[in-house]
Amino acid sequence: MPFIPHTEQEITEMLQAIGADDISALFEEIPAHLLAGELTGVPEGMTEMEISRLMHARASQHPQSVCFLGAGAYEHHIPAAVWEITTRGEYYSAYTPYQAEASQGTLQLTYEYQSMMTALTGMDVSNASLYDGASGLAEAVLMAVRGNRKSKLRKILVPTTVHPSYRKTTQTIVQGQNIELCEVPYDETTGVTSLDAFKQQAGDDITAVVIQQPNFFGNLESVDEITDWAHENNMLVIAVVNPLSLAVLKAPGDWGTTGADIACGDGQPLGAPLSAGGPYYGFICCTQALVRQMPGRIVGRTVDQDGKEGFVLTLQAREQHIRRSKATSNICTNQGLVVTASTIHMSILGASGLEKAAAACHANTISLVKQLSQIDGVEPAFNSTCFHEAVLKLKKPASEVLLALAEKNILGGYDLSGSYPELGDAILVCATEMRSDEEISAYAKVLAEVIA
Amino acid sequence: MLIFEHSKAGRKGAPQSPKLKASVSDIPDSFLRKNSAALPEVSEMQAVRHYTQLSQKNFSIDTHFYPLGSCTMKYNPRACNTLAMLPGFLSRHPMAPEAQSQGFLACMYELQSMLSDVTGMAAFSLAPMAGAQGEFAGVAMIEAYHKSRGDDARKEILVPNAAHGTNPATATMCGFSVREIPTLDNGDVDLDALKEAVGPETAGLMLTNPSTLGVFERQIETIAKVVHEAGGLLYYDGANLNAILGKIRPGDMGFDVIHSNLHKTFSTPHGGGGPGAGAVGVAERLKPFLPLPVVTKEGEDYRWMTEKDLPQTIGRLSAFMGNAGVLLRAYIYMRMLGREGMVRVAEFATLNANYMMAEAKRRGFELAIPDRRASHEFIITLKNEARDLQVTAMDFAKRLLDLGYHAPTTYFPLLVPECLLIEPTETEAREVLDGFMDAMEQIREEAKTDIDLVKGAPYTLPVKRLDEVKAARQLDLAWKADKAK
Question: Which residue in the set B30, B74, B477 is minimally distant from A300, CB to CB?
Fold first, then answer.
C-alpha cells in the first residue's frame, strides 16, 4: 500500500513525455537476468487500520513495570509539550539545514541547544549532537588523539567504572586507528577509581584519560585531583557525564584547576523517552582550543546581507562532504529531532526544574538503598557518595532475583555479574524522580520476600 | 530572538517539577556546582510559542516539495510515528527482560528478515544509527573478514570519484587508505582504471548503484567479477536503494555487504538531521562479523544474540539497540508497503525522475548525462547559464526558495559543474513536478532580464543570504550569559 498519487491518465501522459512505452521500459538498462522475482520474505501490504491493530497488539505484549533500572537509560518526566512540538511536521520532516535561509528554525534551535549544553557542561563549545553516549565517547577519544599533538603513543586510560557498553563501543570504533585503551581498575571498597590506580597504569606518554561522573556504579569520582594530575602530565581529560546530574554536580569545565578538555555523554535524561534504547543522542562539548577537532555539525550565529541575525552550519571544512578521506569523522546525520525535544525540555524545566528533578532522583535513590539494605541478604557494595544509582550485593543469584521481581512487574535493576564478575551477585539500582514513596516501599517488600 | 532573550530571572514552571522537597546537601561541596546553569527561565507557554514559531521558519516535506538529490525526501506517513510512540514501546527500558519485550523483538526480527529479502542478503544487523555508521560497520566487517583469513596485506579501499564523502571518510576511520576510481562521461565506472587499481592490496570497493550521477551502473557484474577475482569484497552504499527497491537486489548484483538508509528508502523522518538508521546486511561469508545486537528466534521466542553467539563480531556500535524507535517506524512503513508496494515505490520514483528529466530537456536545460535513463534522480548542469548569464546553481537554489520549492542538492556530485541533483520521490504528484520546472524556467528568464533579482534571492524567507565567511571567522557558537548585552 504505497503512498503514490498518480492517476492512470497521468501515468500515460508522463510516459509519453518520456518516450517510454511502459514503466518497465524505464528499467531497461538493468540486465534482464538480474531482475528480482517476487519478494517472498515480505508479506502483503497493510492498510493503516490493519497495521494499527498489529502494533497495538505488539505494544500490549509488554507489561507496564515499575522501573528501578538505569544503567545508562533513565525514566524521567517529560512535559507533554516537548514531543507535541517536536513532532510538528516542520521539525519532523525537514532535512539537515543545508539551505540555511529555509532552515532557520532548526538552525536557531540547534544554536540554542549548543548554548544550553555549554551552560550545563561549563565548556566553551558544543556540536549539534552525535548518535549516542557510547559512540560519543569513541568520537571524544578520536578527537583527543587529534588534539593532543604532544602525545605520540595514542594511549588512553579508561577506568573500568566507565559504562561497559561505552567501553565496548569505543573499542569497536577506534580499533582501526592504532589507539590503545588501557583499563584502570577501581577500588573494591569505594567503587571509585583512585589517583594511584591511574598512576600505576600511566607510562611516559598518555594521550588522554576518561572519567565518568557519576561513574557506572553511580558513585562520584575524585574528578578534581584526577584532572589536575592528568594536565600536569600533558594528558587531555575526557569527561563522560549525565547531563541531568550537571544541574547539581560540578560542571566538567570546572573540574580541577583548568577544567576538562572534552565533555561527552548521552542526552537521553533530557527529554528522550526510554523507547527500547533509542533514539537518544550523544552530546560532545570541548574547549575553544579543540573546536577544529570537533566531529559533526556545528551551527554558528552570523548576519545576512542586511545585517540581520541568522544562523548557518559552520566550520564545514572539517566534514566529510568537503574533506572526504581527511575529515575529522565520517559522521553526517546526527540526532536532530531528539535534540529538538531536548532543547524544548530544557527550556520548559529551566535550571531550577532540572535541579529539582536531579535532587529528587538523588533523594529517592538514597531512600531506596536505605530500605533495601535493611533486608537480610542485601547490602550496599560500596561506601561512596552516589548520585542516583547504587550497587547492592545480594545473597541469592542476581539473575534469579531480578527475574522473580520482573514477574511481579518490578524492573529491579541491572545484573552486574556479566560485566563485573568480581562483585559476585550484585545489582545496580536507580530510583528517579518518577518513583513514589509507595513504589519504593513496595519494591522493598517484594525484594524481602524474594530474597528470603 | 533567542529563547535566552525571553528569560526573566526567577520565572519558573511549577507544574513540571516534582513536589518532593529534596536536596543534595548530603553530597560534599567539592562535588557540587556553585552556580545554577545559565538555562533560559521562561514559562511553559513562552517555550511552546517560541519553538512553534521557530518551526514555522523551516521548509519540510509536510510543507514544501523537497527534491534534495540522494536524500529521498518522501512523505513520512503519520501512522509510523503514532504507532512507534505507543506507550508500550516508549516506556520499554532497553535492558528490560527479553520475556517482557517479545512484541518489540518480534518487530525487529521481522524487520531484519524483510530487509534481507528485499536486498538479497543473508542476514541483517539493525545496530548502526545512521548511514555513515552503517558504512563503518560494513567496512569494519570487510577488514575483519580479511584478517580472519590471515590476509593482512589488504590495506586499500577503492571508491569511485562520484561517491558520497562518507565513503572515503569511513574507509579512513577503519584504517584503510583510499584510492579513487574515475568515472566515465556516461556515468559508468572506468573499468580499465578499476582493473589497473585492483590487486593484493584491495580490501574492497564501495559502490552506490544507481550511482550518485543518477544512472544504473550497467557493468556491475563485470565490476563484481574484477573485484572478487582480486580477492576484494564489494560494498553497496544503499543511499539510492529507493530507485531499485524490489526490482533488482544488491545481493543478486554480487554485493557482499550493504547498508540501507532507513530514513531514506523506508521513510523514517529526517528530523532536521537525524536520527537516521543504517542497517547493515551481509552475504553468507560475512555473517560471523555482524555488529551486535542482532535479534534471533528460537522456537516461538525472540532474543538478542551476544558475543557468545557471534564470537567474531566487530562489536557494538551503541550503548543499547541503536535507534530503536526509528527502526519501529521503518518496520511499520515496510509492513504497510508490502511486497507489491515496494516495487511500486521504485517504479514511481523512477517515473517521476524520468518525467522531470524529459521536461527539463524539453525546456532547454542541459542534462549531465543526456542519453540515458534516469534512476530515481537526475542532474541538470547550469554551466551554460553560468557562462552566458553569470548565474550560478546556488543562485537558482536560492531563488527556488522564494518560489516555494526547497532547492535540489547543489554542487554534488563534485564532478559536474554548476549542478542540481534532483530527486522527486514517488510520493509527489505530477502537478508539483510541473510547478517546479515552471519555476526553473521562470528563474532562467529572470536571469536574462533582471540578473540582480536572482542574485539577491531569497527575499521572502526569514533571512536573506547569510554571511558564511563571518560565521567561520568570528566564531559565535553559543549564547553566553556573561557576554549578552
Answer: B477
Closest approach of A138 to chain B, Cα-based (Å): 10
The CATH number for A66-76+350-451, chosen from 3.30.470.20, 3.90.1150.10, 3.10.340.11, 3.30.300.30, is: 3.90.1150.10
Which sequence spans correspond to the domains of chain A? 66-76+350-451, 80-344
Q: Which residues of A touch B358 (CB under 8 A)?
A: 17-19
pLDDT tens figures, A275-295: 999 999 999 999 999 999 999
Range of the domain at B355: 339-470
| B94-132 per-position pLDDT tens digit | 999 999 999 999 999 999 999 999 999 999 999 999 999
Q: What is the CA radius of gyration of chain B?
A: 25
B122 in helix, strand or coil?
Answer: coil
Look at the pTM and tell me if it is higher than 0.90. yes
> How does pLDDT run across B429-465, given as a tens digit for each residue?
999 999 999 999 999 999 999 999 999 999 999 999 9
d(CA A311, CA A302): 6
Which of B73, B72, B80 has its CA nearest to residue B328? B80
CA B259 to CA B128: how far, in whole Å?
9
Residue B485: what pLDDT? 47
What does A59-118 look like in DSSP terms, one character per residue? HTTS---EE---TT-------HHHHHHHTSHHHHT-----SGGGBHHHHHHHHHHHHHHH
Clarify whether residues B240 and B123 are in a common domain: yes
Quick one: cell of A232?
600536569
Three-state secondary structure call for residue A288: helix
Number of domains chain B contains: 3
Is residue A278 within 8 Å of B293, Cβ to Cβ?
A: no
CA distance linking residue A90 with residue B462, whole number of Å: 15
Taking CA–CA distances from B470, the nearest residue in chain A reads A302
Same-domain status, B312 and B354: no
Query: Residue A158: which of A196, A187, A186, A132 has the closest Cα?
Result: A186
Residues B251 and B396 occupy one common structural domain: no
Query: Which residues from A are below 8 Å from B77, CB to CB?
Result: 3, 48
Q: Tell me if B477 is assigned to some domain.
A: no
Distance from CA of A151 to the nearest CA of B (A): 19
What backbone torsions phi and psi does residue B257 show, to the nearest 5 degrees? -155, 140
Interface predicted TM-score of the whole assembly (ipTM), two decimals: 0.97
- Class of the A80-344 domain? alpha beta
